Amino acid sequence: MKKLLTALFVVLACVTLFFGCKKDNASSSTAAPAASTAAASSSSSSSASSSSKSAKLTPISVLYGASVTEAGALPSDWPGYDVLKNELGLDVTFTALPSSANDQAQRIQAMGAADNLPDIFQVDRNVLTNLVRQGLVAEVDDMYAMMPHRTEMLYDENSIAHTTINGHSYGLASPGSIAGNEGLLIRKDWLDNLGLDVPTTLDELYDVMVAFTKDDPDGNGRNDTYGYGAYIETNTSDKGYPGSRLLPILGAFGVEGIWDMTEENAGLNIYKPEFYDAIAFIKKMHDEGIIDPNWLSYGKDDFRAAWKQGRFGIMKEQNAAYASESNYAPFDKNFPDGEWIIIDAPIGPNGDQSIGPWDMSYRIYAISQNAVDEGKTEAITKFLEWMSSDEGYMLAGFGEEGVNYVLDENGLPVAGDLGDMSYTGSKGQVYTQLRNMVFYNGDMELASRYPTYTTESGKEMSALKALREMQALTWTPQVGVSTLPTPSADVQRYYEQSLAEFITGGRALTPENWQAFIDQFNRIGGKAWNDQGVQWMKDNNLLTK
Amino acid sequence: MKKTSQPVVTTTKSGLAVSQEAAAVYKARNKAKLGAEIKRHAGVYLLAIIPVAYYIVFKYVPIWNAQIAFKDFMARQGVLGSAWVGLANFKEFFNSFYFWSLIRNTVMYSVGKLLLSLPLSIILAIAIYECTRPILRKIVQTLAYLPHFLSWVIMYGILLALLAPGDGVVNDVIKAIRGTNVGFDFLTSTKAFPWVVLFSDAWKEMGWSAIIFIAALMGIDGSLFEAAMVEGANSWQRVWYITLPAIRPVIVTVLILKLGTILDAGFNQIFMLYSAPVYSVADIIDTWVYRSGLLEFKFGLATAVGLFKGVFGMLLVFLSNFISKKVSETGIF
Fold first, then answer.
1. pTM for the whole structure
2. ipTM for the complex?
3. Which of A119, A270, A354, B110 is spaced 20 to 30 Å from B216 by Cα?
C-alpha cells in the first residue's frame, strides 16, 4: 500500500510537472512574458459567445509599466478587454514590469537574450540601445502614420528624436513623468520656531541646517533632528553622484548633474574646479552631521518615511510624493502644525543657482522584431490607436464611469462618492494600471490626478499647486541629456566610488588626491566618455548658449 | 598426442580468476539481481525521476549554451549562429580594471564565511544535540533556522534598524556609552563592512547549516558516550574525543563541497548591502558580472565568468579531495 501511494504520488508529480511546463498553444502563438502570474488576458474575461471567435483573434502581449506599482495587476474584469476582443479582434495579454529600473532592465534583457520579447514593451533608452544593437527591436517609423490620433496626442519631433538611433525610430516615446516636478522644501514651522528667515544663499542655507540640527527646531527637548535629508538617487545620464537629492547644493556651484551642455564649457562637470568645491561642501555637511547620517544607507522609501517622521527640515522632493493626499497624510497626522514650503535653490559663491538639470522625460514603448515578422504591425497600431481614443483613454486612465469615476460639472472625472472603488481608491486604482500608456500630462489629467483637498488638521493641499510652484523654480535646461552616451560599468564604479570616498573620508579630499583621481579616471575610460558625450552634443545640436 | 583444450580464463572485478562460462553466469546473475533490486525499490527510483529531470534540464542541458562564453552572442542568431570570438570575453574579464580587487573581495568573503560559519554551525549543532531539555532544544532550533527563510531584502531592513548611524539600536547604545550624538556608519565604513557581511551571513545561515551536523550527530552510537561517562569523561572531553571525531567525515565533506563554490561569495547579500563608499571592499565577481554583463547585455562575458568560476571551483574540489584523502583518509570520491 505504501509503495502504491508513493508511486501514485510520483506519477501525479510528473504529470503536474509535464503539464505545468507545457506551452499553451491554444491561447497564444507567441510565448507570453514569463511572469504569467502577474498577467491578465482578455481571454479570461471573454463571454461564452465570443469564445467561438477566438480562432480569429490576434494575440498581442504587452509588458507595461504599472502606474501604481505597489498595487495589484490589471484585473481580469477590466472592461477594456471586451472591447479589444469583440470589437477589435485582439487577444491582449498585459504583464506588469517590476518597479525598480534595474529589475526592469534585467528582466527585459533576459527576455531579449532568449529572443522572447513581448510584442510591445516599455523600456528605457539605454536598454533600448542594447536591444537595437542585437536586432531585437523593430523600426517604428511607419507606425506613426498608421495611428494618426495617437501620434497627434503623444508623439512629436522631440519624442521621435529621443528614440532615433542610426536614423531610425525604434520606439514610441510618450510623455513620461512631468518635467520640473521636484523642488527644494523647507519646514516653515521650524524656521518660525527658531525665528529664522527663508534662506536664499548657500551660506544662509548652511546656517539654517546647523540650527535645525542643534537648536531643537521641533521643541521636543531631544537632539533628534537634522538639517538636510537625502538618499542616493543616481544615474549616468543626468543625476550623477551623489545624486538627484543634492543637486540644489551642486547647482549653487554651477555643477548640477553629470554634464555641462553649454557651448563654452561642454563636457563632464567633474573636470570643473567648482565640482571639487561642491564635494568639499557636501563633505562638510556630512562631517558636521547636519545631513541625516543615514543618507548613504537610505532607500527611497526610508527617506520618505524619515521626513514624515520629522527627522530633517530641508529636502528635495517630488510634487506628488510630497503633496498628494495619501503621501501627505502621515506627516499631517504626526505634525498637525507642521508645514513644508517650496523654496528656490540657494545662490552659490559665484552667483550660480539651480534646482537641477531639466530634460523632457519620455516613456518608451518598443515593438519587438518578432512581432513585426509575425505580421502584427497592423494589429499593434490598431490596439494603440484605440488606447488613445476617447473610450480607450477613459478606460485606461480612469476606469469605468459610475464604477471608478463620475464626471463633475466641468466634465472632469472625479472620485465622487465611489469610495474604495474610485480610481484613486485602494480597490479601484488597479483599473488605472495602464494609464501611463495613454496619459499625456494634459490639464484635465493633472486636475484629476492632483485634486485639491483638506487634510485632517485642516490644511488645504494640492499636488498640482506644488507642481506649478516647482516648475517655476530655477532649473538648468538640458534637453536631450538622457540620450548622451553612458560610461562602462568600471568607469561608473570608479566615478561613484571615488566621490563617495571623498565625501565620507575614505580618501582625503586634497587637491593632490583630486588630481590623482581625475588622472586615473581619464586613464580607465573617463576621458573617452567625456569626448564621446561632447561629440554627441555637437552632432545632435544639443549645446546651449 | 591429443591436446587438452584449456578453459578460457577471465578475471572478475575482485581479481578472482574464473572461466568465461562462470563469468557469464556471474554477470547474468548480477543483472537479474540488479533488475530485482530496481523492481524492489521501484518507488524510490520513481521518486528520483523528478530530481534527475531537474538536474538534466537545469544543470546539464545549459552546459551546451556555455559555448556563448566564446562567442559574440547575438540573440537573433541564437547560440549556434553567433560568431566565435575566441577568448575575447575571458580577456575582457581578466583585463578589467578591478579584476584583482574582485578576486580578492570574493575570496575574502568566501573564505571568511567558511571560517566563521562552519565552526559556528558545528558548535550550534553540538549545543543543540547536547541539550537535554526537549522544549528548549526545539525553541532554539526553530529560532536558529528562522533567519534562513528571510530574504536579504528583509535582512537589510533589520540590519539598517540595528546599525543605522542616525537611529540604529547598536548606535543608540554606542552614543549612550560615548555620551555623544555621533554614531558609527557600519554599512558605509570600509573597515566595518566586511565584518557586517560575515556576521550577518553567519547569523542568517548558521542554523540551517547546522542541520547536516545534527543529522550526523544523531548517528553516533550512544554506548560510546555511556562508556566515556563510566570512565569519568566530562562533557568537554566527550565532545572532543567522541563527538568531533565521529562527525569528522561530514565536516570534511561539507568543507570540500564548499570549496567548489569558493568564487560564489553571496550575490544577493552583497547586492543588497553594498553602496559606493564601500565598493572597494564590497564589489565581488557576481556583482561586477551583474553590472558589466547582464545590465549591458554582454551575456557572453557573463557566461565566460561563470565558466571560469565553475572550472576553478571544480579544480579546487579535486585538489582538496586529493589532499584530504592523503592526510585524513577521508574524501567525497
1. 0.82
2. 0.80
3. B110
